[in-house]
């Protein structure tokens, strides 16, 4: 049985596309599309990996990440952070909050796949 | 080592123009011809009464002879050299450049100012891209939509066997997304254009206000008692001189204060009293106002009145963060524009000793000439209330000093980068002046 990835992203068509390629690659894909209760969603689904958008309705991805890192059981969870701004500052911020990997929109399917495989393997 | 100064060369030039012999000028100025010769060859510094006497003998304005008129230009040239240190501008020759090629020097200075302005604009724009929430949201939406289209299109192209339902769905998604992208891009463009329209606020509104006040000689008769105008009317009258909203708002604050000061402190009585003792603390007590208000008043007297007191006077005010809120520079006492000033200024000392008026004689380290008496004080702004932290602001009145003795003199700079003092406990950043001195 494949591993589970939780995609937290508010853009339905990105969810659909990422969901499609990851399923084809053998992943079970769960999705969540708002920031407010994202931390609860992670706890409830206990995925092997999280893809987290920084700009979510209700709550910033950075805040969610911080809570995950501070929370029991999710402190080591691989998190791939998605952002629309690739400035060095954002990258540094992502690292300081404990992102396992950082990816700037727009990205290619191959990049996502590679990142997810790396993170799940490592 | 005496820094080269041009005053001597100018005296020589002026004397030659009048066809006056060195001995004659020396006699009229009450000095020996050999001393005058040293002065004319820039081997002796000159200022104060002797400069005034020589100017009188030559029948010219003292400022024409002194470096004062050029001080601002030279300071700007030094800043320009410091900003592009890699160009290797000969810092030692800055006075010579300004004296021999005033037009070129003015051009360099003007370009430096323009570059500074552009850099600031750029900073504001970058700031806007980072902090403007609307712009950031539009940008994020466009990029997200692009990501969705990119991702979906690749799936359609790269997936060999794709179920018809999925294919149809992805086609639909791309169609939807491309429409959203078109709208998002349009919104982004209109937001960027809105930023462009706001461009007049991107320059420094402080500069605009200062230029406006300087053009009026920092004195506004229509706001004096019985002048008959309100600050709002003065601003409306200013038209293009105060073009940005921010500048108009800042001017409103400054002019309202001006009107308030003017109502309490009429020009006549203040000038008369100041002729007795030019001490803002004493004058303030006499007129029942705060020393800061008195300093503002002294720095906004009509030019004729100020001249009888040895003025005009410079004034700089700052808030508790050290940021300038008001600047009236003097020709010989340039005030830094965007960069921070010398921490040794009594202005900042006053902030750590609130309510205590500080009188301090200063000599500007980067100037060949320039003796000043400064009066500084920090006072709370507005009403002081229990349970509320007061906000302080400091004022420093700058009075040109005729006395050139060393007594009680503190050497300060304008700003670190152009300050030649090698050993300074207040130094924040290296100076190109110090470097060039070490190299020479």
From TrEMBL, chain A:
<protein>
    <submittedName>
        <fullName>Response regulator</fullName>
    </submittedName>
</protein>
<feature type="modified residue" description="4-aspartylphosphate">
    <location>
        <position position="53"/>
    </location>
</feature>
<dbReference type="InterPro" id="IPR050595">
    <property type="entry name" value="Bact_response_regulator"/>
</dbReference>
<keyword id="KW-0902">Two-component regulatory system</keyword>
<keyword id="KW-0238">DNA-binding</keyword>
<keyword id="KW-0597">Phosphoprotein</keyword>
<keyword id="KW-0804">Transcription</keyword>
<dbReference type="Pfam" id="PF00072">
    <property type="entry name" value="Response_reg"/>
</dbReference>
<dbReference type="InterPro" id="IPR011006">
    <property type="entry name" value="CheY-like_superfamily"/>
</dbReference>
<dbReference type="InterPro" id="IPR001789">
    <property type="entry name" value="Sig_transdc_resp-reg_receiver"/>
</dbReference>
<keyword id="KW-0805">Transcription regulation</keyword>
<feature type="domain" description="Response regulatory">
    <location>
        <begin position="4"/>
        <end position="120"/>
    </location>
</feature>
<dbReference type="GO" id="GO:0003677">
    <property type="term" value="F:DNA binding"/>
</dbReference>
<dbReference type="GO" id="GO:0000160">
    <property type="term" value="P:phosphorelay signal transduction system"/>
</dbReference>
Automatic annotation (TrEMBL), chain B:
<feature type="coiled-coil region">
    <location>
        <begin position="77"/>
        <end position="128"/>
    </location>
</feature>
<dbReference type="InterPro" id="IPR010982">
    <property type="entry name" value="Lambda_DNA-bd_dom_sf"/>
</dbReference>
<dbReference type="Pfam" id="PF09856">
    <property type="entry name" value="ScfRs"/>
</dbReference>
<keyword id="KW-0804">Transcription</keyword>
<dbReference type="InterPro" id="IPR018653">
    <property type="entry name" value="ScfR_C"/>
</dbReference>
<dbReference type="InterPro" id="IPR050807">
    <property type="entry name" value="TransReg_Diox_bact_type"/>
</dbReference>
<keyword id="KW-0805">Transcription regulation</keyword>
<dbReference type="InterPro" id="IPR001387">
    <property type="entry name" value="Cro/C1-type_HTH"/>
</dbReference>
<feature type="domain" description="HTH cro/C1-type">
    <location>
        <begin position="11"/>
        <end position="65"/>
    </location>
</feature>
<keyword id="KW-0175">Coiled coil</keyword>
<protein>
    <submittedName>
        <fullName>XRE family transcriptional regulator</fullName>
    </submittedName>
</protein>
<dbReference type="Pfam" id="PF01381">
    <property type="entry name" value="HTH_3"/>
</dbReference>
<keyword id="KW-0238">DNA-binding</keyword>
<dbReference type="GO" id="GO:0005829">
    <property type="term" value="C:cytosol"/>
</dbReference>
<dbReference type="GO" id="GO:0003677">
    <property type="term" value="F:DNA binding"/>
</dbReference>
<dbReference type="GO" id="GO:0003700">
    <property type="term" value="F:DNA-binding transcription factor activity"/>
</dbReference>
